[in-house]
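Folding problem:
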Amino acid sequence: MAGRFWLLAASLAPAAYAAVSCGGGTQCPEDAPCCSQYGQCGVGAYCLGGCDPVNSFSLEACVPAPVCQSQTYKFDNLDGIVPNTKYLGDASKADWVSSGQPLEYDGSVLLTMAEGTVGTLLASTHYVWYGKVGARLSTAAGAGVVTAFILLGDSKDEIDFEFVGVELESAQTNFYSQGVTDYHNGGNTTGLTDVHANMHDYEIDWQPDTITWSIDGKVVRTLNREDTWNATANRYSYPQTPCRVQLSLWPGGLSTNGEGTIQWAGGLVQWNSPYMENGYYYATFDEVSIQCYNPPSGANSSGSKSYVYNNDAMTNNTVEITNDNTILKSFMATGLNMSAGDASASASASGSAKTNNPESVPGLSGGGTGNNGQRGGDNNSDGSSASGTDSGSGSATATGSASTGFVQGGGSNGGSNGAGQIGGNSEAVLRGSLFAVVVALVGLCVL
């Protein structure tokens, strides 16, 4: 399954401006030039992380992406986390951009999800263009509840670890290239000790020729680039462009989601579940580490600060490393005019005060993050529909338009592309009255 914990409620969008849709070859207009990962056009934060270059007004509408930075992120406090209503692209001042309600607890960050919300998402401000990325975490639990640790590119390239809240002894792995859903890309690793009650170490080792997924230091799956050749598209269907690291908790089992999403997530979310603490589901992330690898051989380079695309093919050889600016002056600015607006003009939950202004902070209701968060129906990479599911809302193309089809990752029980089975660590997640008190504070924050 594509892992998506994209979670800012739709109420963040200003009601006075009718959102313009983009994707599937439909580009944004010049006055709202940036196509968000949710398929809507806007300015400001729409032009930062997640901005889809192909379906924006032009490739230049999206702001250049900060280059990879090797670092281990601990969560003793939330100082490195900035809400997406405040972040303007300065990665030197923030490690993560948040939607929803993150909470610090006992040296970890809790991603919370209460009734009436669509969860919490953290996205790294720096991109990774090949590297080793690890996360130590315990998942949320319960029907319809999905925890995710993924790499997601603006090109819709994607590499996933996902966890369904009714499958507490397994982890799902997946990958996508340019948002094209392939029914056969998923894998399932079983035999883990309770992923909600115990911390595990999950790692994605992403190299130009291979991707390796590991759990607690044991390799559970390997993907070879050579095995992904797509003769129809005349390219490798292999993730190969800069990606952000994303951590999320989202409600796959909302009644407003597609039937395929709900079924995959284990049913409807139960808002009186014993897995909730004081009215909240939670996933706990203890640490995230990023080790950057060198750019691929022959990479285009004219600087060292940012990644840009010079062609809408969205492949390795269309990425360029530059010294281009990554910071907007205001939430009315775009990659086409990065100094537009006033630095004192900040976004708010109600959007711009001017009724004619385009949206400046993207969000969605219900769906998860990534290419396939809504999972309406099964669409294979050739555009054909897989049997046994409801119909999708359109197939993806090789130009980076994400499908909303439901992809049930089957995988096999062995081999380089299939499922694995391993044991796990037994470090219990801390719970008790203090935890309940701390989580209860979230309710005060969101009232």
Remarks:
- Confidence is low (pLDDT under 50) at residues 1-16, 345-355, 374-447.
- The CA atoms of residues 181 and 220 lie 22 Å apart.
- Residues 433-446 form the longest helix (14 residues).
- The radius of gyration is 20 Å.
